[in-house]
Amino acid sequence: MRLALPIRKKQVNRSFAGTFWMFVFLAAFAAFMALPLVYAINAAFKPLDEIFLFPPTLFVRHPTTSNFIDLMTLLGQSWVPFSRYIFNTFFITGMGVVGHVLLASAAAYPLAKHKFPGSKFVFAIVVLSLMFTPQVTAIPNYMVMSWIGFIDTYWAVIVPAFAFSLGLYLMKQFMEQIPDALLESAKIDGANEYRIFWQIVMPNVKPAWLTLVILLFQMLWGTDGNGFIYSEQLKTLHYASNQIIFGGIARAGVGSAVALILMSVPIALFVFSQSRIIETMTTSGMKD
Amino acid sequence: MSTIGTPTQPSVTAAARKPAVKTTSWWAIKWKEIKAHKHSYILMSPYMLLFAVFTVLPVIMSVVISFTYFNMLEFPRFIGWQNYSRLFLEDDVFLIAIKNTILFAVITGPLSYMACFVFAWIINDLRPKLRAFMTLIFYAPSISGNVYFLWQMIFSGDRYGIANGFLIKMGVLLDPIQWLKTEKYIMPIIILVQLWLSLGTGFLAFIAGLQTVDKTLYEAGAVDGIKNRWQELWYITLPSMKPQLMFGAVIQITSSLAIADVSIYLAGFPSVNYAAETIVTHLIDFGTIRFEMGYASAIATVLFTLMVGTNLVVQRLLRRVGE
Q1: Domains and CATH numbers, chain B
Q2: TM segments (chain A) (predicted)?
Q3: Regarding the domain delimited by A76-281, which CATH topology (the fold level of the hierarchy) does it fall under?
Q4: Are the Cβ atoms of A284 and B247 closer than 8 angstroms?
Q5: CB contact A16 to B (< 8 Å)
Q6: Where are chain A's structural domains?
Q7: What angle do CA B241, A6, A273 make, to 5 degrees?
Q8: What is the ipTM of this complex?
Q9: Nearest to B152 by CA among B199, B193, B183, B103
């Protein structure tokens, strides 16, 4: 089901001058977009004297890994072993991603492929929930968490992530393009709904899984506990790294190293999964 | 509900014959349908249960709490519209917050929406490898997470900040400017950073949408007298991408009304003279610092109404485009 990337070798209605200026325009903005990231990469390899050079430089002159070595030393000294922060982030991200992909796919399949009482209403509510951000519900959410007893546990971050609405929306839109004939033939062969879902539908929506995985990963990788986690030993990598970054001038170099490590992970994931994500997004449109 | 009319007709004749038993009422039919799809409900139930508990219920609770005085210790006390009247009539900072939020949204919303589309459109004409590379460059800021810190270094108030350093070196400035502590610079800087961060899911949806436009339409259009890329964009590309355009609009509008993190990290919390206060930062102030939960819920309810209202209006407008 991979989308064949179209190469329009001979494009109609394109003047050379137009194409040239469009490209210049694009390149200028690409430079603006990339500049801060390029700066971050360079800053991570700058020795301390170069960070505070006047006038400031963009590119590093004498690259060094001393920032990363300092970071290692710093990590060795933290009160909670640093590996604990890493474990916390990986645990939250892993559980959240797996749970979300399973639950959202299970809910998306009937919504995409069956018409039953309430299906339209349920989907309308999900679309409505795309229209506001979690900050709206932050206060009652805290109360709900405390009723359930999730405060100061991993679950306060993991379980709400299961019901992330953008994931269900994208998955449902993508599942709609699975041919009905495929499901019908499975039914005739005697498969029940659960088998159809697991053995026919799920293998056919791999690009959408991957998209959900990436979206959730980005969200959870950057989580600082959303205000639900207080115990130091449960806190996340993002939280710990903020502690380092906000350490002030003396930590400027180490801070850049941390920022570089943290941001390279989601970017690398995106590089590997770009074509699948784009494929999922082709079905993201809102039909009436 | 067109189903109401047809299924009741046989029941009329049945009722005429056997007046005592109403065989197939509307509810009976629905119940039958529900039973026939019980597997669908079972598959949906885990997700929907969590969705109800963590999204639907909190929205309802928020509206209810907004009519009470609630400090998390005592039981909430009903006070009617008092929170709202205080919000709009007495709270000067909230009026600043509303003004800033709307200003941010009016500028970053449409600009980021257009940027998403224009860049996706230009990128779409590139060859696949370059296209993948450019997509990455434009998308990377929105996924790189912890990047406010970079902008803090760029707009740092001393001579070592990039912006100050370059301007002093070029002779534009003599003394460094406290960018993030001067009221008139705070808003433009936040808008700039927000725009930089805003090419996210909507941008990807547009990239994907452009690839699905039927290629033969372009050739047919050329035959029918479309002369340049602008006409092609207006008459073929935009109408074919309407579903993605609607989806992108929801994403961009929602995020443009929720600006808070950038403001807090760059301008501080609270910002100088509330120059960067938004509805969300105001909500955080009352919800997590002052613990006036009733009042904070009123702010949340206003925000909810603003977000959903704007989205629905824009959806309605976009639906009309090209009809």
Answers
A1: 86-320 (1.10.3720.10)
A2: 20-45, 85-109, 121-142, 154-171, 208-229, 249-272
A3: MetI-like fold (1.10.3720)
A4: yes
A5: no
A6: 76-281
A7: 85
A8: 0.85
A9: B193
